[in-house]
Amino acid sequence: MSNHVYKTIELVGSSTRSMEDAIQRAIGKAAETVRNLRWFEVMDTRGHIEQGRVAHWQVTLKIGFTLEEE
Amino acid sequence: MSNHVYKTIELVGSSTRSMEDAIQRAIGKAAETVRNLRWFEVMDTRGHIEQGRVAHWQVTLKIGFTLEEE
Amino acid sequence: MSNHVYKTIELVGSSTRSMEDAIQRAIGKAAETVRNLRWFEVMDTRGHIEQGRVAHWQVTLKIGFTLEEE
Amino acid sequence: MSNHVYKTIELVGSSTRSMEDAIQRAIGKAAETVRNLRWFEVMDTRGHIEQGRVAHWQVTLKIGFTLEEE
Amino acid sequence: MSNHVYKTIELVGSSTRSMEDAIQRAIGKAAETVRNLRWFEVMDTRGHIEQGRVAHWQVTLKIGFTLEEE
Amino acid sequence: MSNHVYKTIELVGSSTRSMEDAIQRAIGKAAETVRNLRWFEVMDTRGHIEQGRVAHWQVTLKIGFTLEEE
Amino acid sequence: MSNHVYKTIELVGSSTRSMEDAIQRAIGKAAETVRNLRWFEVMDTRGHIEQGRVAHWQVTLKIGFTLEEE
Amino acid sequence: MSNHVYKTIELVGSSTRSMEDAIQRAIGKAAETVRNLRWFEVMDTRGHIEQGRVAHWQVTLKIGFTLEEE
Amino acid sequence: MSNHVYKTIELVGSSTRSMEDAIQRAIGKAAETVRNLRWFEVMDTRGHIEQGRVAHWQVTLKIGFTLEEE
Amino acid sequence: MSNHVYKTIELVGSSTRSMEDAIQRAIGKAAETVRNLRWFEVMDTRGHIEQGRVAHWQVTLKIGFTLEEE
Amino acid sequence: MSNHVYKTIELVGSSTRSMEDAIQRAIGKAAETVRNLRWFEVMDTRGHIEQGRVAHWQVTLKIGFTLEEE
Amino acid sequence: MSNHVYKTIELVGSSTRSMEDAIQRAIGKAAETVRNLRWFEVMDTRGHIEQGRVAHWQVTLKIGFTLEEE
Q1: Per-residue pLDDT of chain B (70 residues; tens, 9 = 90+)
Q2: J26 vs A5: CA distance, rounded Å
Q3: How many other C-beta atoms lie within 10 A of the C-beta of residue J9?
Q4: What is the DSSP letter of H67?
Q5: Helix, strand, or coil here: F3?
Q6: Residues belonging to chain A with any Cβ–Cβ distance to chain B shorter than 8 Å
Q7: Would you put residue D52 in left (φ > 0), alpha (ψ -120 to 50) or beta?
Q8: Nearest-CA distance from D67 to chain E in Å?
Q9: Distance from C-alpha of E62 to C-alpha of G28, rounded to nearest angstrom
Q10: What ipTM, to 2 d.p.?
Q11: Quick check: do A and E touch, 3+ CB pairs under 8 A?
């Protein structure tokens, strides 16, 4: 972990199933275009309500990844 | 979502089962007396411990709803 | 709950399975050496990513317990 | 202002025109049902975007009012 | 404390005598209309100054109470 | 709004005219390169002073947009 | 901007017209006695309500200025 | 309270007797040199301990006052 | 105060009488087992309500002490 | 600095030598791909410990740059 | 440290050399006009970037000093 | 890093030389009695001033370590 530089991006994952699923979906989406994802941090947990129940969980994440050598 | 006014209230849901269940219980309780619930935001996650295990999950939520036209 | 004094400690639990399991593990570990655990509060939820998926959930908790009379 | 007790409520006003209009709308709505509104504080300013422009301004306010003697 | 749902409201108590008196006044006022008050948390301590001395203490509180079964 | 993933970016808009214009300029700039802009949140409002007057308003925004399916 | 030292002061501007006018008034007042005002940052936006409308906007600012060489 | 401009300063009052006395001392000191003190807000409450007891209470305050017309 | 190292611990004192008494009780309890207590900082003030009155004050403190040379 | 729009990105620089070196490394890395870097702000300072000493300093920065005209 | 009253002021020191030098410069500047400087606290660390390197470090400090008896 | 539990403690290191030295001293002191120190985070940077210069740097750290299996 010596002299690397990392970048963080902020994503919001959403899911009809659970907070953990919303997080996994955001990370899965990030992994489609970014290599070397290393860690995440939950910034905020929200959701939409329909008919008196949670319709979607929405979790805002910071995701950190290694900037590769060039 | 044009020119509506929304109100937010703060509830604490508790559950012996999970964080998500505590959230659903608070929203379900709000839905008994308030129509047009729209969104929620988790403010705080706490719990009580008994015999070295989580006895109750307690999640503090802000819940937003549309103020109806009069 | 009258005139007791409580102490809080900060632990980080980790789990490959879920946020709730990470919390239970931290509390279970604390219960090995501290009696009278009473409550917890989630301070931070993070995790490590491997191959585009959450590899470990890491939850930072404050845990409160009663200081016993001497 | 001697020994009064005040209550605060949290509203979100929205407007297609401006931040100030969103605030005025939330206060106007509160004034329909609450007497003795005294002050407000802006908690958050957000908005929705459509076609590359602000479509609605949304301002979250705390509004304080005097609880009347009974 | 099992599966209850709690609601929190925010009040500002004021008193010419002390911070604790301002808190007691806000709680006493809440107790006129709400049953089952359970806990409070101090959010802010302010006051007005007249002639170089504190004229009124103003303490903002969150107050939590149990929502009763229906 | 089901299972989408959103990304947020942080921009600072500046304007000699008003806070709202600074916000519109930042959003307009983002719209040149990003499709599907959905919402914004004001993080910070600052400005530069020249000759005892506001010379530029500078507003820091988080702007959220939908990551498109691939 | 090399080796200067800056000082910040905190002012609250008020206006019956708008947030921007409240800010301009605070800066204008500061400029009566302080030279070299350089930047400001909005800390808080509040106001007083009369008859269901905003009576005064009150904006708290930090204002920075260069300490001159002596 | 119309179009006034207010300034806030930050003081730390200390007292061997109580938090309220520490606050009164800071305000009393400010009143020696500043006219038109209007309000205060508690920012921080600290103290020094000697021989297992509070030796001094130290309370950090923001104090607001009207800038007079010139 | 030269090259010492200090440790801080977090305690919650409770009292039926006052905030200051809750603080003194937490410090007194700490002094039973820790030497060289030096300072404290109030983190949070809460309490329990019974029959419309404050039943217990609960004050969360950080307490700092010198780690002795070995 | 008139009507420009700026973007901020968040990077974490690490260094075995010092906090300042960690900051310089993050900025140097950003400069490989982004023109017009203008300012930075330190968000967080952390590090890894090996054998009772700091092994790496890790500094999280927000870095702002001008979005160029197109 | 008994019954003194302290005042805090906020300065921003800048330096082309290091964070510590920026702090020393702000304190040195304050010492030109204020006696009895006692402590400081770092509020913010920022800087300007030129040609991919830190051009100036800018550190915002609160500086506390004893108000003298009159 | 799988299923470990970590504990964090808060120390304040002080040094007449630099911020980094204050941090190293706190970590070095912790290492005298705790094994498996893993990471630290800077919470606060303060200092004492004598004769218009920094006399001591004081840095508050959270330090994390692995709780060993028993």
Answers
A1: 457 999 999 999 999 999 999 999 999 999 999 999 999 999 999 999 999 999 999 999 999 999 976 5
A2: 6
A3: 18
A4: P
A5: coil
A6: 18-19, 44-49, 51-54, 57
A7: left
A8: 8
A9: 38
A10: 0.95
A11: no
F3-7, G10-14, K51-55, L6-10: segment of lowest average pLDDT:
F3-7
Q: What is the pLDDT of residues I24-69, one digit of tens each?
A: 999 999 999 999 999 999 999 999 999 999 999 999 999 999 997 6
Please, do chains L and J touch (3+ CB pairs < 8 Å)? yes
Question: Which secondary-structure segment (H or E) carries C66?
Answer: strand C53-66
Q: Say how far apart CA G60 and CA K41 lie, in whole Å.
A: 22
User: In this structure, is the dihedral angle defined by the CA atoms of residues L40, L45, L47 and L53, taken in order, positive or negative?
Assistant: positive
Q: Which of F2, F7, F70 sits opposite A10 (nearest CB)?
A: F7
- Please, are residues K35 and K47 in contact by the beta-carbon 8 Å criterion? no
Rounded Cα distance, C16 and E18, in Å:
51
Enumerate residue ranges in chain G where pLDDT < 50.
1
Residue E61 backbone zone (phi > 0: left; psi -120 to 50: alpha; other: beta): beta
First to last CA, chain H: 17
Q: Who's near B31: CB < 8 A, 6+ residues apart?
A: A49, A51, A52, A53, B37
Which of H5, H40, H61 to mutate: most G Cβ within 10 Å? H5
Closest in K16, K26, K60 to G2, CB measured: K16
Q: Which residue, chain included where needed, has tokens 């001497």?
A: C70
D25: nearest Cα among D66, D65, D60: D60
The number of residues in chain G equals: 70
Say yes or no to pLDDT of A1 above 50.
no
Q: Which residues pair with D65 in a beta bridge?
A: D7, D37
